[in-house]
TrEMBL record:
Classification via InterPro entries: UPF0047_YjbQ-like (IPR001602), YjbQ-like_sf (IPR035917)
Protein name listed in UniProt: Secondary thiamine-phosphate synthase enzyme
Length: 187
């Protein structure tokens, strides 16, 4: 194989959001705080192929505070084990300050964030925000442990992940419509 100097090829960039439905088939509107895992490898591979990247990097970021990203084997019994482990790590039934909705917002800074991300966007009042907030501190904690991003090299047009590895979106507060941001950069 002959290496082509990178200066001879133009670097390309693509940022796209990928939507993942995490079990909304039954018409559920309110999250049940279920944990589910979803293989998003095919969507990421398709973006790399569409852009024609031979060598570069893919960065993936969760767009939610109660989802996470990881790379591991996508095998049914292991997925069950992951969900069970997350439930043991931070049980949904645990006692968490975040779940004391009647005490929120707890500061002027909290109120400013609710205003910026909810009220000023025309989504409703503070009372309407509190009314729609799920009891989900456990999901936030698990998401922090797992992480919100993954970065994967691309070589010769392929993701550099192992034979048994998949890119997995972990929904810790579903089912919902979820989104990940995918940035592909390379030549």
């Amino acid at each position: 194989m002959t290496a082509v100097p990178s200066a001879a090829r133009a670097t390309q960039y693509l940022y796209e959001r990928v939507a993942v439905r995490t079990g909304l088939g039954d018409g559920v509107l309110v999250p049940k705080q279920e944990i589910s895992l979803h293989d998003i490898t095919p969507q990421v591979e398709a973006l790399v192929q569409r852009l024609g990247i031979r060598d570069g990097t893919v960065n993936i970021v969760s767009q939610h505070t109660t989802t996470a990203l990881t790379i591991n084997e996508y095998e049914t019994r292991l997925l069950d084990d992951v969900a069970a482990f997350m439930e043991k790590l931070a049980p949904a039934s645990g006692s968490y300050k975040h779940n004391d909705l009647h005490l929120r917002p707890a500061s002027d800074a909290d109120r400013a964030r609710i205003d910026r991300n909810w009220m000023s966007l025309g989504k409703g009042t503070l009372a309407e925000f509190i009314a729609q907030e799920p009891i989900n501190a456990h999901a936030h904690l698990c998401a922090m442990v797992l992480g919100a991003t993954v970065t994967i090299p691309v070589a010769e047009g392929r993701l550099c992940i192992g034979q048994w590895q998949s890119i997995i979106l972990v929904d810790l507060d579903g089912p919902r419509e979820r989104t990940v941001g995918v940035q592909v950069t390379g030549v």
